[in-house]
Amino acid sequence: MKERNGKRFSTIRKWFSGIPALGWLLGAFVAVIIEYYFGESLADMLGLDRIPVLFGVVIMLKKPAAIPGAFAYVFMIYVLPVTIIARITSKAMNWLAVLLEKLPLWMSAILHLILLYYILDLWADMSDYRLLLLKLSLIAIMLTLSLNVINGYMGEFSCSHPGFMALGAYTASIFTVGLFMNDRILGHALISTIPSWMGQIVFPLGLILGGAIAAIGALVVAIPSFRTRGDYLAIISLAFMFIVKSGFENLEVFGGPRGLGGQPDWATLPAVFIWAVLCVWTINNFVESTMGKALNAVRDEEAAAEAMTVNTRKTKMIAFMFGAFWAGIAGGLFAHVLRYVNPGTFGLKKLAEVLAMVYFGGLNSVIGSIVGAVGFNLLSEMLRPLEIFKWIIIPVLLILVMIFRPTGLIAFKHFDIREILKPKLKMKERV
Question: Rounded to whole angstroms, how far apart are CA atoms 293 and 270?
Fold first, then answer.
């Protein structure tokens, strides 16, 4: 029986192994187009109240009687179109991938990203809930990657990411609301009228400013922490998180515990998507650079790294500030997606979520961080109908992952964009 199942799995894997990334993207694009135009009609035919979100899991948990219809919907809308289109177009997509391989890598990557963006845009355009979930998932990817630089690649244990996120969120919000919006807390706008297109140009300045303030906050943590060894960083960073949270709760000039609202609607899907792509690209280049290799050496054996002329303290401080910078930008985007920021958001619950995403996806892995962030966010939303039982199931799943995969689902794996985009044909087939 085991041999038969192994042969079946090998056959299925071989059947799909020749499909390049373009083929899967084309299949997903066709599936989303089908759902966009025929999803409501199919949902009515299957006796569903509306188009299922999150692949029908939410409907299944709310109404067990709808399980057959939800399964049929997901199979007909997603599984069949994606697999069939990807398989029947594999030769054509491989041929196209061969042509794209002759272009500069950045150009081929941008073409793939444009197709990916249109798939996500169409999928999110069907409901505001999907749009919000997609934006928050992209922000979660940025947070997870930035913490993985510290807890994974550097090998330290930091608890200060919610604090960095809060600094970025409040700084970006004060920048945009104080300059361009009339607010009961910050007063009249310094620049009362601004076209929306100009706001999209100015908005990145506020995000970068928020990231810079978060990096300065990281410096405050790093200076005393990296003079010592052991668990002092965890203790000092946890104290920093509480100090930042308590500080904003007691600063009435920024809204105090009531928070600060009225942020302009500038965190559009294109803006969040571009920042997430920049974050993945920048962090991947950082960890693959000489600095990243030095960081790994410090993690594996700090004394040996020092003997090999690596300035360990400088290396750790740069990595810590780099991770904090991207956490600050993620915080600024988070505040403008929700159009409200509250100090209570950046407490222990947020810390637990970010740590769970990092260790669930995998240490020392850009791909693992992406999988961990998206997987945890989707799982959290899928189990929302279970209410309190959700916070029993998720910890149990995390415990199981830690038992059977102590370093995470996809750990210590390089993110090679060339390998992902290359054709899947054998050399003799490409001649």
Answer: 33
